[in-house]
Design goal:
The protein has about 190 residues and is mainly α. It contains 7 helices and 3 strands, in the order ααβαβαβααα. Helix 1 packs across helix 5.
């Protein structure tokens, strides 16, 4: 089943979160489900309910609200003095619903998989791309070539890569995306230097 835009938004949000934030969710998902839940008497909840707590506006709060819109968690409220103190602390709690376990677990796995792929691409970039471009520039310079010669060789290389990785009707869009990313990285470097 293809991911919908909400799944993509959730995965993007999770990619930006640290492991400390996601560890709460991972731990909750690893709790066994009791097929015969028992009332505990505390706040009218079942003893086996899994309650996730965080600060309002935190990355987990934003993530769990996305889950809530999908019906995977439900915001919890507390009555009495505890509820009042809870609200004053700027805390929020959500109950993990049975319907949320599998989809949330799947999205975390997709997030982890995408981060592994990004990590691998960064390794390839460091180990292969950077040395290739450095060798290319050195070769052109040692042969007496200038910036225009370097640009020409890089553009031919880029064109060959685009032909290998995409269908002809997508070549222009792929080049546009690569150029956009390159400009963005250059802007980020300039901003970091300022």
């Amino acid at each position: 089943m293809p991911e919908d835009s909400t799944d993509n938004a959730i995965i993007r949000h999770m990619r930006g979160m640290g492991e400390a934030d996601l560890s709460i969710l991972r731990a909750a998902l690893n709790q066994p489900v009791n097929p015969h839940p028992v009332k505990s008497g505390g706040f009218g909840r079942k003893k086996d309910d899994i309650i996730l707590a965080t600060q309002v506006g935190s990355p987990n709060d934003l993530l769990w609200r996305m889950f809530e819109s999908r019906g995977w968690v439900a915001e919890e409220t507390f009555a009495g003095d505890f509820g009042h103190q809870w609200a004053e602390m700027g805390s929020v709690a959500f109950k993990l619903l049975p319907s949320g376990r599998d989809p949330i677990r799947s999205l975390i796995e997709q997030r982890d998989d995408s981060l592994r792929k990004v990590g691998r691409m960064m390794e390839i970039h460091r180990e292969k791309c950077l040395p290739f471009v450095a060798d290319l520039i050195t070769s052109v310079r040692s042969a007496g070539g200038g910036n225009a010669d370097v640009a020409t060789l890089i553009s031919f290389t880029l064109e060959a890569v685009v032909r290998l990785i995409s269908e002809p009707e997508h070549h222009e869009a792929v080049v546009d995306d690569l150029a956009r990313v390159a400009r963005q990285r250059i802007a980020e470097k300039k901003q970091a230097q300022d």
